Amino acid sequence: MQGLLSLFQKVRLIFFALLLALSLSFNASGGEPLMSMAQRFYYGYGTPQNFQKAFSLYLKAAEQGDVDAMFIVGGMYMKGQGTVVNTAEAFRWLYNAAINGRSSKESERILAEFFVTGKNVPQNYEEALHWYELAANGGDFEAQSELGYLYFTGKVGEKDYKKAAHWFELAARNDYPLAQYNMGILWYTGNGVDTVDMIKAYAWFSLAAANGYGSGVVAENFLKTVLSDKELKDAQEASMEIYREIKSLNQGAVTN
């Protein structure tokens, strides 16, 4: 009897240990209970919206290794949502999420910006290049523009105007005014585009100006004093053609 009781007690202990292990594993790997509760508080599903409670639960899940929670916590620290703004913690959690396979083009760009500025992390242009490339290839137009800047200035080695032009144009055709202005500069100087072309320079300056970029307005007005009437007409037509291409491209992206 004593042996049977001892066996029963052992089985019961093993059973409870298994339940505990499964519970801990569930929280640590999937994080579903914590994530589910956090989401309810974050979005206000069936309960009053409460970012502070959501943050606390997301942080707990992140500390248990949930990469989605790491990503969310990094974003909440970045925005000061449910907690105070803390860029050091934002970097830590976004970086940990990213190296574990959870990132977005925006978070990749943010990581790159940390490495460029040297804020909360040693300045490292090679790391910045890595994260900008990921974000840029994912379609982030700000990252595309910043990648162009790194190549244009030679922050990652020798200056490479061809690569700068490639990335500036991608961003410019995503209707990003800073990149449109920079494309104007490239055509005005001939860097990265093989030749000087005042018509194309004006076209891009004009688009940047139309998007409210102040330096684009200045450059557009300057070229109006340089170009002949025919050249100005051609330049304005070129600007309209690029504008139509951009609108068509963006409408196609929305449709898809």
Automatic annotation (TrEMBL):
Signal peptide region:
none
Q: What SMART domains would the database entry show?
A: SEL1
Gene3D superfamilies from the UniProt entry: Tetratricopeptide repeat domain
Q: Where are the transmembrane segments?
A: none
The protein's name is Sel1 repeat protein
Q: Which organism is it from?
A: Desulfocapsa sulfexigens (strain DSM 10523 / SB164P1)
